[in-house]
Amino acid sequence: MYEDSACLEMLFKNAAPDVASRIDCARGAGYRAFEFWHWSNKDLDAIERAKDAAGIDVTGFLMEPQTRLVNPAEHGEFLQGLAKSIFVAQRFKAPFLFMQGGHPLEGVGRDEQTAAMVDALQKAANVLRGSGITLLLEPVSDNPGCFLDLGAEGLDIVERVNRPEVRLLFDVYHSMVMGEDFMAAIADRIDLIGHVHLADFPGRGAPGTGKQDLNAIKEWFRIEGYTGRFGLEYIE
User: Fold this and answer.
1) Please, how many CA atoms are within 13 Å of residue 41, restricted to the half-sphere of its CB?
2) Which of the residues 82, 96, 170, 182 has the least number of beta carbons within 10 Å of its own beta carbon?
3) Alpha-carbon distance 58 to 199, whole Å?
4) Domain locations along the chain
5) Beta bridge partners of 60
6) Alpha-carbon dihedral of residues 196, 42, 90, 192, nearest 10 degrees?
7) Fold of 4-13+62-232
8) Residues 87 and 63: beta-carbon distance below 8 Å
9) CA–CA distance, 53 with 63 (Å, rounded to integer)
């Protein structure tokens, strides 16, 4: 499948007031899947009803809480939250949970913090095992001071975790903001990517508002062997 997944936190905001009411907008626009951010502040019953009525799939959403994976003291909270988030993902038959790395620790070396992140994700893989849910680590550029902001480094971490329950959410827009050549960053590691986010660059707008040929980018991922959806997460 190469269909798109609409991020309903950003798309159709002018048409409907919340995620549940935007599901019908997404289906009307031809989307067969959607995603969103936090789940604990949503009317999950309303989302489920709208999803079922529209016959549309949930791609994934943020696991909660978004703790600092680089901090071993927060790993317990992270794993407890993961277990609760898995339950919600299973309810919606969503294959993915999204996780960012959080802010770094002051006075602690980067190698030590990276090792802590790897350890947290390996523990997470044990919690995820057999659940049918994959946790996706997402490097981001728009969260000032975030520990993980490069796609290449994110792939390095997923390689070190070395578990099928943990993959990367590769956001092409964030990668471009960081000045990465995303094709070179990915190289031959497409199998480590569970989901891809797209927005035009610069500006994080809709396709055609920037300088990128998003269809060509999709085709590149296809040629490399990516078989998932493309999450559209842009400013309308």
Assistant:
1) 9
2) 182
3) 19
4) 4-13+62-232
5) 35, 96
6) 20
7) TIM Barrel (3.20.20)
8) no
9) 25
The single-letter code of the amino acid at 30 is G
- pLDDT, tens only, 128-186: 999 999 999 999 987 777 899 999 999 999 999 999 999 999 999 999 999 999 999 99
Question: Would you state the structure tokens that stand for residue 5, as one six-digit string?
Answer: 């997944």
Q: How far apart are alpha carbons 230 and 216 in whole angstroms?
A: 13
Across-strand partners of 137?
99, 168
Residues (pLDDT < 70) of the chain are 1-2
Distance CA 202, CA 108 (A): 34
Whose structure tokens read 């529209």? 54
3-state secondary structure the chain: CCCEEEECCCCCCCCCCCHHHHHHHHHHCCCCEEECCCCCCCCHHHHHHHHHHHCCEEEEEECCCCCCCCCHHHHHHHHHHHHHHHHHHHHHCCCEEEECCCCCCCCCCHHHHHHHHHHHHHHHHHHHCCCCCEEEECCCCCCCCCCCCCHHHHHHHHHHHCCCCEEEEEEHHHHHHCCCCHHHHHCCCHHHEEEEEECCCCCCECCCCCCCCHHHHHHHHHHHCCCCCEEECCEC
